[in-house]
Amino acid sequence: MRFRRAEIILLALLLSAVSALAGEPAPGFVADGAVPGQGTAGKPFRTAQAVLPEYRPDISVTDREPKSLSLSAPAEVNPYLPVSIDVTVPTAGSVRVTVASSVTSLRLRDPLPEYATEAGSFSFPWKALTWGDEPIPAGRAVLTCSFAGGGKEQTVSREIVIRNPSAGLVYALPERNTYCPGKQPHLRIDYALANSGSMIMAVCRDDESREKVFQLQLNAPNDKNQVFRWNGKSNMGKPMTPGPYLMAFYAKKDPDRVLTQRLTITDQWEEAPQPYLYDPYAMPADGGDEAVWDFLMSPVWVLEGGEGGVKKMVSAPNGRAEKLGSVTCATTAVAVLDLSVPGWARIGAYRKEDGAYTEGWIRRSNLRYVRPSTGCALVLDKKSQRITAWEDGHPVGTVSVSTGSVEVGGDPTAETRAGVFLTHNRMDPFRDEDRYRYRYVMRLDGANLIHSIGSREAEGGHAMDYSDHLASLGRKASHGCIRVSLQADEENGGITSWWIWTHAAFGTKVYIIEGNE
Question: 130, 262, 322, 439: most buried by Cβ count inside 10 Å?
Protein backbone atom coordinates (compact mmCIF):
# COMPACT_ATOMS: atom_id res chain seq x y z
CA MET A 1 0.00 0.00 0.00
CA ARG A 2 1.07 3.56 -0.63
CA PHE A 3 0.16 6.99 0.63
CA ARG A 4 -2.39 8.88 -1.44
CA ARG A 5 -1.04 11.73 -3.54
CA ALA A 6 -2.34 14.34 -1.08
CA GLU A 7 -0.53 12.57 1.78
CA ILE A 8 2.72 12.50 -0.17
CA ILE A 9 2.55 16.23 -0.89
CA LEU A 10 1.73 17.05 2.72
CA LEU A 11 4.50 14.88 4.11
CA ALA A 12 7.00 16.37 1.68
CA LEU A 13 6.08 19.89 2.77
CA LEU A 14 6.40 18.96 6.42
CA LEU A 15 9.78 17.35 5.89
CA SER A 16 11.10 20.40 4.07
CA ALA A 17 9.91 22.60 6.94
CA VAL A 18 11.59 20.42 9.55
CA SER A 19 14.94 20.40 7.74
CA ALA A 20 15.13 24.16 7.18
CA LEU A 21 17.48 26.06 9.49
CA ALA A 22 17.76 29.83 9.63
CA GLY A 23 21.21 31.40 9.73
CA GLU A 24 24.43 30.06 11.20
CA PRO A 25 24.26 27.88 14.30
CA ALA A 26 25.18 29.62 17.55
CA PRO A 27 28.02 28.20 19.66
CA GLY A 28 27.32 25.86 22.54
CA PHE A 29 25.17 26.87 25.49
CA VAL A 30 26.96 28.68 28.30
CA ALA A 31 24.66 29.32 31.24
CA ASP A 32 25.61 32.93 31.96
CA GLY A 33 25.50 33.87 28.27
CA ALA A 34 21.93 32.88 27.49
CA VAL A 35 19.58 35.78 26.94
CA PRO A 36 16.03 35.83 25.60
CA GLY A 37 15.91 35.33 21.86
CA GLN A 38 19.65 34.91 21.38
CA GLY A 39 22.32 32.26 21.38
CA THR A 40 25.46 32.61 23.47
CA ALA A 41 27.16 34.81 20.88
CA GLY A 42 24.20 37.14 20.43
CA LYS A 43 22.99 35.33 17.32
CA PRO A 44 19.24 34.74 17.02
CA PHE A 45 17.85 31.32 17.79
CA ARG A 46 16.31 29.60 14.81
CA THR A 47 12.53 29.57 14.85
CA ALA A 48 11.17 26.51 16.62
CA GLN A 49 9.34 24.10 14.33
CA ALA A 50 5.76 25.26 13.64
CA VAL A 51 5.67 27.42 16.78
CA LEU A 52 5.34 30.86 15.26
CA PRO A 53 3.49 30.34 11.98
CA GLU A 54 3.03 33.36 9.77
CA TYR A 55 -0.35 32.73 8.19
CA ARG A 56 -0.96 34.78 5.02
CA PRO A 57 -4.31 33.98 3.41
CA ASP A 58 -4.97 34.58 -0.25
CA ILE A 59 -7.25 37.58 -0.68
CA SER A 60 -10.33 36.90 -2.73
CA VAL A 61 -12.19 40.18 -3.37
CA THR A 62 -15.94 39.64 -3.36
CA ASP A 63 -17.20 43.22 -2.86
CA ARG A 64 -15.43 45.95 -4.82
CA GLU A 65 -17.37 48.82 -3.32
CA PRO A 66 -17.79 48.03 0.38
CA LYS A 67 -19.04 50.90 2.50
CA SER A 68 -17.91 49.91 6.00
CA LEU A 69 -15.59 47.71 8.02
CA SER A 70 -17.13 44.41 9.09
CA LEU A 71 -16.11 41.22 10.87
CA SER A 72 -18.07 38.00 10.77
CA ALA A 73 -17.44 34.80 12.73
CA PRO A 74 -19.49 31.87 14.06
CA ALA A 75 -21.07 32.44 17.45
CA GLU A 76 -19.43 29.26 18.78
CA VAL A 77 -16.05 27.69 17.97
CA ASN A 78 -14.49 24.36 18.96
CA PRO A 79 -10.65 24.42 19.02
CA TYR A 80 -9.05 22.28 16.30
CA LEU A 81 -12.25 22.42 14.23
CA PRO A 82 -11.72 25.09 11.52
CA VAL A 83 -14.23 27.88 10.99
CA SER A 84 -14.24 30.81 8.59
CA ILE A 85 -13.50 34.36 9.74
CA ASP A 86 -14.79 36.90 7.23
CA VAL A 87 -13.49 40.48 7.00
CA THR A 88 -14.59 43.37 4.79
CA VAL A 89 -12.52 46.57 4.50
CA PRO A 90 -13.86 49.77 2.88
CA THR A 91 -10.60 51.01 1.27
CA ALA A 92 -7.04 49.90 0.71
CA GLY A 93 -5.07 49.75 3.97
CA SER A 94 -3.80 47.46 6.68
CA VAL A 95 -5.94 45.07 8.71
CA ARG A 96 -5.34 42.90 11.74
CA VAL A 97 -7.59 40.51 13.67
CA THR A 98 -6.79 39.95 17.34
CA VAL A 99 -8.35 37.69 19.96
CA ALA A 100 -8.79 38.23 23.70
CA SER A 101 -10.19 35.73 26.17
CA SER A 102 -12.27 36.59 29.21
CA VAL A 103 -11.14 33.31 30.76
CA THR A 104 -7.35 33.64 30.86
CA SER A 105 -5.09 36.55 31.75
CA LEU A 106 -2.51 35.41 29.17
CA ARG A 107 -2.08 37.28 25.92
CA LEU A 108 -3.27 35.14 23.01
CA ARG A 109 -1.87 34.83 19.51
CA ASP A 110 -3.47 37.04 16.90
CA PRO A 111 -5.40 34.95 14.35
CA LEU A 112 -4.11 37.17 11.50
CA PRO A 113 -0.82 39.12 11.33
CA GLU A 114 -1.02 42.71 10.14
CA TYR A 115 -1.97 42.47 6.50
CA ALA A 116 -1.98 45.00 3.64
CA THR A 117 -5.04 44.63 1.45
CA GLU A 118 -7.15 46.29 -1.17
CA ALA A 119 -10.78 47.18 -0.57
CA GLY A 120 -13.03 44.15 -0.50
CA SER A 121 -13.84 41.05 1.47
CA PHE A 122 -11.74 38.04 2.33
CA SER A 123 -11.89 35.00 4.58
CA PHE A 124 -9.39 32.90 6.47
CA PRO A 125 -9.75 29.62 8.41
CA TRP A 126 -9.28 29.64 12.17
CA LYS A 127 -9.08 26.76 14.66
CA ALA A 128 -9.26 28.78 17.92
CA LEU A 129 -5.65 27.92 18.71
CA THR A 130 -2.95 30.12 20.16
CA TRP A 131 0.87 29.81 20.20
CA GLY A 132 2.09 26.35 19.21
CA ASP A 133 -1.48 25.20 18.51
CA GLU A 134 -2.54 25.40 22.15
CA PRO A 135 -6.36 25.49 22.38
CA ILE A 136 -7.93 28.70 23.63
CA PRO A 137 -9.70 27.83 26.91
CA ALA A 138 -13.44 27.35 26.91
CA GLY A 139 -15.44 30.48 27.68
CA ARG A 140 -16.17 33.86 26.17
CA ALA A 141 -13.69 35.54 23.85
CA VAL A 142 -13.67 38.64 21.67
CA LEU A 143 -12.37 38.92 18.11
CA THR A 144 -11.38 42.46 17.13
CA CYS A 145 -10.60 43.68 13.63
CA SER A 146 -8.43 46.80 13.47
CA PHE A 147 -8.17 48.67 10.18
CA ALA A 148 -6.14 51.69 9.06
CA GLY A 149 -6.74 53.18 5.60
CA GLY A 150 -8.03 56.24 3.82
CA GLY A 151 -6.71 58.42 6.61
CA LYS A 152 -8.90 56.70 9.21
CA GLU A 153 -8.51 54.07 11.90
CA GLN A 154 -11.47 51.83 12.69
CA THR A 155 -12.19 48.81 14.84
CA VAL A 156 -15.05 46.36 15.03
CA SER A 157 -15.48 43.49 17.49
CA ARG A 158 -17.38 40.26 17.65
CA GLU A 159 -18.02 38.24 20.81
CA ILE A 160 -17.78 34.48 20.42
CA VAL A 161 -17.96 31.46 22.71
CA ILE A 162 -15.12 28.93 22.78
CA ARG A 163 -16.50 25.45 23.42
CA ASN A 164 -14.66 22.27 24.36
CA PRO A 165 -12.01 21.22 21.82
CA SER A 166 -12.65 18.82 19.00
CA ALA A 167 -10.63 15.59 18.98
CA GLY A 168 -7.54 17.24 17.49
CA LEU A 169 -4.09 15.69 17.92
CA VAL A 170 -2.22 17.46 20.71
CA TYR A 171 1.06 15.52 20.43
CA ALA A 172 2.52 12.19 19.33
CA LEU A 173 5.97 11.63 20.80
CA PRO A 174 8.04 8.54 19.96
CA GLU A 175 10.68 8.00 22.62
CA ARG A 176 13.56 7.91 20.12
CA ASN A 177 14.37 8.18 16.43
CA THR A 178 16.44 4.97 16.15
CA TYR A 179 14.96 1.59 17.00
CA CYS A 180 16.24 -1.98 16.93
CA PRO A 181 13.29 -4.42 16.99
CA GLY A 182 13.90 -7.52 19.04
CA LYS A 183 16.88 -6.10 20.92
CA GLN A 184 15.23 -3.09 22.54
CA PRO A 185 11.96 -2.96 24.46
CA HIS A 186 8.99 -1.95 22.34
CA LEU A 187 9.19 1.64 21.10
CA ARG A 188 7.19 3.84 23.47
CA ILE A 189 4.94 6.48 21.91
CA ASP A 190 3.09 9.00 24.10
CA TYR A 191 0.10 10.67 22.47
CA ALA A 192 -2.98 12.67 23.36
CA LEU A 193 -6.05 14.08 21.66
CA ALA A 194 -7.81 17.19 22.91
CA ASN A 195 -11.03 15.19 23.25
CA SER A 196 -12.17 11.59 22.90
CA GLY A 197 -11.43 10.21 19.45
CA SER A 198 -8.96 8.19 17.41
CA MET A 199 -5.43 8.77 16.17
CA ILE A 200 -3.98 7.18 13.05
CA MET A 201 -0.36 6.06 13.23
CA ALA A 202 1.28 5.26 9.89
CA VAL A 203 4.84 4.27 9.00
CA CYS A 204 6.20 4.56 5.48
CA ARG A 205 9.58 4.16 3.87
CA ASP A 206 11.49 7.43 3.76
CA ASP A 207 12.34 7.22 0.07
CA GLU A 208 10.73 8.09 -3.25
CA SER A 209 8.30 5.19 -2.99
CA ARG A 210 6.74 6.34 0.32
CA GLU A 211 5.52 2.76 0.65
CA LYS A 212 3.28 2.40 3.67
CA VAL A 213 4.28 -0.62 5.74
CA PHE A 214 2.29 -0.09 8.92
CA GLN A 215 -0.94 1.63 9.92
CA LEU A 216 -2.96 1.42 13.10
CA GLN A 217 -5.91 3.28 14.61
CA LEU A 218 -5.39 4.09 18.28
CA ASN A 219 -8.24 5.22 20.49
CA ALA A 220 -7.97 8.00 23.06
CA PRO A 221 -10.97 7.88 25.41
CA ASN A 222 -10.28 11.32 26.91
CA ASP A 223 -7.78 14.18 26.86
CA LYS A 224 -5.25 12.31 29.04
CA ASN A 225 -1.87 11.02 27.97
CA GLN A 226 -1.96 7.61 26.27
CA VAL A 227 0.96 5.22 25.78
CA PHE A 228 1.38 2.83 22.83
CA ARG A 229 4.30 0.42 22.54
CA TRP A 230 5.16 -0.71 19.02
CA ASN A 231 7.15 -3.87 18.35
CA GLY A 232 8.61 -2.68 15.05
CA LYS A 233 6.64 -5.11 12.90
CA SER A 234 4.67 -4.35 9.75
CA ASN A 235 0.96 -4.96 9.27
CA MET A 236 1.98 -8.32 7.80
CA GLY A 237 3.50 -9.28 11.16
CA LYS A 238 7.05 -9.23 9.78
CA PRO A 239 9.98 -7.31 11.34
CA MET A 240 10.72 -4.05 9.54
CA THR A 241 13.79 -4.21 7.33
CA PRO A 242 16.62 -1.88 8.39
CA GLY A 243 16.57 1.54 6.82
CA PRO A 244 15.01 5.02 7.01
CA TYR A 245 11.30 5.43 7.70
CA LEU A 246 8.85 8.22 8.34
CA MET A 247 6.31 8.03 11.15
CA ALA A 248 3.11 10.05 10.65
CA PHE A 249 0.38 10.73 13.20
CA TYR A 250 -2.95 12.49 12.76
CA ALA A 251 -6.37 12.64 14.39
CA LYS A 252 -9.06 10.79 12.51
CA LYS A 253 -11.28 13.89 12.71
CA ASP A 254 -8.47 16.22 11.54
CA PRO A 255 -6.48 14.45 8.80
CA ASP A 256 -5.05 17.72 7.48
CA ARG A 257 -2.76 18.22 10.51
CA VAL A 258 -0.04 15.56 10.36
CA LEU A 259 2.82 15.27 12.84
CA THR A 260 5.87 13.44 11.51
CA GLN A 261 9.15 12.06 12.79
CA ARG A 262 11.95 10.28 10.97
CA LEU A 263 12.79 6.83 12.30
CA THR A 264 15.78 4.63 11.54
CA ILE A 265 15.22 0.88 11.90
CA THR A 266 18.49 -0.91 12.58
CA ASP A 267 19.58 -4.47 13.29
CA GLN A 268 22.78 -3.30 14.99
CA TRP A 269 22.37 -2.27 18.59
CA GLU A 270 24.94 -1.93 21.35
CA GLU A 271 23.88 -3.84 24.43
CA ALA A 272 24.07 -2.06 27.77
CA PRO A 273 27.75 -2.03 28.78
CA GLN A 274 29.22 -2.97 32.12
CA PRO A 275 29.41 0.04 34.48
CA TYR A 276 32.24 2.45 33.69
CA LEU A 277 33.52 5.71 35.17
CA TYR A 278 31.15 8.48 34.10
CA ASP A 279 30.49 12.18 34.73
CA PRO A 280 26.91 13.24 33.79
CA TYR A 281 27.64 16.92 34.47
CA ALA A 282 30.53 17.40 32.02
CA MET A 283 28.72 19.60 29.50
CA PRO A 284 31.37 21.07 27.15
CA ALA A 285 32.02 24.80 27.38
CA ASP A 286 33.29 24.93 23.80
CA GLY A 287 33.01 22.88 20.64
CA GLY A 288 29.82 24.51 19.44
CA ASP A 289 26.31 23.14 19.20
CA GLU A 290 27.47 19.74 17.99
CA ALA A 291 29.48 19.06 21.16
CA VAL A 292 26.68 20.22 23.46
CA TRP A 293 24.07 18.20 21.57
CA ASP A 294 26.24 15.08 21.77
CA PHE A 295 26.43 15.58 25.53
CA LEU A 296 22.67 16.12 25.85
CA MET A 297 21.98 12.95 23.85
CA SER A 298 24.58 10.82 25.66
CA PRO A 299 23.43 7.82 27.78
CA VAL A 300 23.30 8.13 31.56
CA TRP A 301 23.56 5.84 34.56
CA VAL A 302 20.56 5.89 36.90
CA LEU A 303 19.55 3.73 39.85
CA GLU A 304 17.33 0.70 39.30
CA GLY A 305 13.81 1.12 40.63
CA GLY A 306 10.37 2.53 39.95
CA GLU A 307 9.34 6.14 39.51
CA GLY A 308 9.60 7.95 42.85
CA GLY A 309 11.57 5.16 44.54
CA VAL A 310 14.93 5.89 46.19
CA LYS A 311 18.21 4.11 46.88
CA LYS A 312 20.53 4.96 49.79
CA MET A 313 24.19 5.88 49.40
CA VAL A 314 26.43 4.60 52.20
CA SER A 315 29.83 5.72 53.49
CA ALA A 316 31.68 2.47 52.75
CA PRO A 317 31.22 -0.54 50.42
CA ASN A 318 29.38 -2.76 52.90
CA GLY A 319 25.77 -3.22 53.95
CA ARG A 320 26.30 -1.89 57.50
CA ALA A 321 27.91 1.43 56.62
CA GLU A 322 26.47 4.83 57.55
CA LYS A 323 23.72 6.12 55.25
CA LEU A 324 24.70 9.40 53.56
CA GLY A 325 21.51 10.25 51.69
CA SER A 326 19.08 9.01 49.09
CA VAL A 327 18.90 9.31 45.31
CA THR A 328 15.71 9.04 43.27
CA CYS A 329 15.52 5.95 41.07
CA ALA A 330 14.94 5.91 37.29
CA THR A 331 15.03 9.68 36.71
CA THR A 332 18.26 10.95 38.35
CA ALA A 333 21.59 10.53 36.56
CA VAL A 334 24.54 9.68 38.84
CA ALA A 335 28.28 10.07 38.43
CA VAL A 336 30.20 6.79 38.56
CA LEU A 337 33.43 7.57 40.42
CA ASP A 338 35.02 4.32 41.61
CA LEU A 339 34.61 0.68 40.54
CA SER A 340 37.62 -0.75 42.35
CA VAL A 341 35.58 -2.76 44.89
CA PRO A 342 33.92 -5.87 43.38
CA GLY A 343 30.14 -5.62 43.45
CA TRP A 344 30.13 -1.98 44.55
CA ALA A 345 30.28 1.45 42.91
CA ARG A 346 31.01 4.84 44.41
CA ILE A 347 28.66 7.40 42.91
CA GLY A 348 28.04 11.13 43.12
CA ALA A 349 24.63 12.81 42.99
CA TYR A 350 22.62 15.67 44.43
CA ARG A 351 20.82 13.92 47.26
CA LYS A 352 17.08 14.14 47.80
CA GLU A 353 17.16 15.29 51.42
CA ASP A 354 18.65 18.76 50.91
CA GLY A 355 19.98 18.95 47.35
CA ALA A 356 23.61 18.79 48.49
CA TYR A 357 26.08 17.05 46.19
CA THR A 358 27.10 13.82 47.94
CA GLU A 359 29.39 10.92 47.13
CA GLY A 360 28.77 7.43 48.49
CA TRP A 361 28.63 3.74 47.71
CA ILE A 362 25.83 1.58 46.30
CA ARG A 363 25.68 -2.01 45.11
CA ARG A 364 26.77 -2.16 41.49
CA SER A 365 23.67 -4.19 40.55
CA ASN A 366 21.60 -1.06 41.22
CA LEU A 367 23.13 0.81 38.28
CA ARG A 368 21.06 0.93 35.08
CA TYR A 369 22.20 2.25 31.69
CA VAL A 370 19.64 4.49 29.99
CA ARG A 371 19.65 6.23 26.62
CA PRO A 372 17.66 9.51 26.77
CA SER A 373 14.96 10.48 24.33
CA THR A 374 16.36 11.81 21.07
CA GLY A 375 13.70 14.45 20.35
CA CYS A 376 14.81 17.43 22.43
CA ALA A 377 16.63 18.38 25.64
CA LEU A 378 16.33 21.11 28.26
CA VAL A 379 19.04 23.06 30.11
CA LEU A 380 17.94 25.04 33.18
CA ASP A 381 20.24 27.64 34.73
CA LYS A 382 19.10 28.34 38.30
CA LYS A 383 21.06 31.60 38.36
CA SER A 384 19.24 33.14 35.39
CA GLN A 385 16.01 31.16 36.07
CA ARG A 386 15.68 30.27 32.41
CA ILE A 387 15.36 27.05 30.43
CA THR A 388 17.08 26.76 27.09
CA ALA A 389 15.33 24.27 24.81
CA TRP A 390 17.40 22.23 22.35
CA GLU A 391 15.99 20.45 19.33
CA ASP A 392 17.61 18.81 16.30
CA GLY A 393 21.09 19.76 17.50
CA HIS A 394 20.53 23.47 18.18
CA PRO A 395 19.12 25.79 20.86
CA VAL A 396 15.68 26.94 19.70
CA GLY A 397 14.73 29.43 22.42
CA THR A 398 14.58 30.19 26.12
CA VAL A 399 11.76 30.50 28.63
CA SER A 400 11.54 32.10 32.07
CA VAL A 401 10.89 29.82 35.07
CA SER A 402 10.63 29.79 38.85
CA THR A 403 12.47 27.06 40.73
CA GLY A 404 12.19 26.05 44.38
CA SER A 405 13.25 28.09 47.36
CA VAL A 406 14.04 27.12 50.95
CA GLU A 407 12.53 30.43 52.07
CA VAL A 408 9.23 29.60 50.34
CA GLY A 409 9.07 25.92 51.24
CA GLY A 410 10.44 26.22 54.75
CA ASP A 411 12.92 23.31 54.58
CA PRO A 412 15.90 22.16 52.47
CA THR A 413 13.80 19.81 50.34
CA ALA A 414 12.09 22.83 48.77
CA GLU A 415 15.26 23.78 46.90
CA THR A 416 15.11 22.48 43.31
CA ARG A 417 18.01 20.07 43.06
CA ALA A 418 20.74 20.57 40.50
CA GLY A 419 21.82 17.63 38.38
CA VAL A 420 20.86 15.67 35.30
CA PHE A 421 17.38 14.16 35.12
CA LEU A 422 15.09 12.32 32.72
CA THR A 423 11.45 13.31 32.35
CA HIS A 424 9.08 10.53 33.31
CA ASN A 425 5.33 10.04 33.23
CA ARG A 426 2.87 12.80 32.42
CA MET A 427 0.30 13.71 35.07
CA ASP A 428 -3.15 15.26 35.25
CA PRO A 429 -3.57 18.95 36.17
CA PHE A 430 -3.72 19.52 39.92
CA ARG A 431 -4.24 22.22 42.54
CA ASP A 432 -1.92 22.94 45.44
CA GLU A 433 -2.86 23.89 48.98
CA ASP A 434 -3.11 27.55 47.94
CA ARG A 435 -5.63 26.64 45.20
CA TYR A 436 -3.28 27.38 42.31
CA ARG A 437 -4.01 25.10 39.37
CA TYR A 438 -1.10 23.69 37.33
CA ARG A 439 -1.22 22.17 33.87
CA TYR A 440 1.18 20.32 31.54
CA VAL A 441 2.68 18.33 34.41
CA MET A 442 5.57 15.87 34.05
CA ARG A 443 7.40 13.92 36.75
CA LEU A 444 11.05 14.95 36.94
CA ASP A 445 12.62 13.79 40.19
CA GLY A 446 10.51 12.03 42.76
CA ALA A 447 8.20 14.65 44.28
CA ASN A 448 9.51 17.41 42.02
CA LEU A 449 7.66 18.15 38.79
CA ILE A 450 7.97 20.42 35.79
CA HIS A 451 4.72 22.18 34.87
CA SER A 452 3.08 25.46 33.92
CA ILE A 453 2.83 28.46 36.17
CA GLY A 454 -0.27 28.27 38.33
CA SER A 455 -3.58 30.04 37.88
CA ARG A 456 -6.28 31.06 40.30
CA GLU A 457 -9.85 32.15 39.74
CA ALA A 458 -9.97 35.89 40.34
CA GLU A 459 -13.01 37.46 41.92
CA GLY A 460 -15.18 38.88 39.16
CA GLY A 461 -12.37 38.37 36.66
CA HIS A 462 -10.46 35.68 34.82
CA ALA A 463 -11.16 32.06 35.66
CA MET A 464 -7.50 31.43 34.82
CA ASP A 465 -5.62 34.33 36.39
CA TYR A 466 -1.85 33.78 36.12
CA SER A 467 -0.82 37.24 37.35
CA ASP A 468 0.66 36.05 40.68
CA HIS A 469 3.04 33.54 39.13
CA LEU A 470 3.78 35.71 36.12
CA ALA A 471 5.11 38.31 38.55
CA SER A 472 7.40 35.78 40.24
CA LEU A 473 8.96 34.38 37.05
CA GLY A 474 12.71 34.83 36.91
CA ARG A 475 13.26 34.17 40.62
CA LYS A 476 12.97 31.27 43.05
CA ALA A 477 9.37 31.06 44.19
CA SER A 478 8.14 27.43 44.27
CA HIS A 479 8.21 24.57 46.76
CA GLY A 480 10.63 22.60 44.58
CA CYS A 481 8.83 22.14 41.28
CA ILE A 482 9.84 24.01 38.13
CA ARG A 483 7.14 26.47 37.04
CA VAL A 484 7.41 27.36 33.36
CA SER A 485 5.92 30.41 31.66
CA LEU A 486 2.96 29.96 29.32
CA GLN A 487 3.52 33.29 27.56
CA ALA A 488 5.13 32.88 24.13
CA ASP A 489 6.41 35.42 21.66
CA GLU A 490 9.06 35.87 18.98
CA GLU A 491 11.69 36.86 21.55
CA ASN A 492 11.72 33.52 23.33
CA GLY A 493 11.27 31.44 20.17
CA GLY A 494 7.82 30.28 21.24
CA ILE A 495 9.21 28.12 24.07
CA THR A 496 6.62 27.69 26.83
CA SER A 497 5.31 25.05 29.20
CA TRP A 498 2.98 24.03 26.36
CA TRP A 499 5.97 23.68 24.00
CA ILE A 500 7.71 21.40 26.50
CA TRP A 501 4.49 19.41 26.99
CA THR A 502 4.10 18.83 23.24
CA HIS A 503 7.79 18.26 22.41
CA ALA A 504 9.47 16.49 25.36
CA ALA A 505 9.02 12.74 25.05
CA PHE A 506 9.35 10.26 27.89
CA GLY A 507 13.03 10.19 28.93
CA THR A 508 13.97 13.71 27.78
CA LYS A 509 17.22 14.85 29.41
CA VAL A 510 16.97 17.90 31.69
CA TYR A 511 20.26 19.39 32.91
CA ILE A 512 19.81 21.72 35.90
CA ILE A 513 22.84 23.93 36.54
CA GLU A 514 23.26 25.25 40.08
CA GLY A 515 24.60 28.67 39.02
CA ASN A 516 26.22 31.18 41.35
CA GLU A 517 24.08 32.83 44.00
Answer: 130
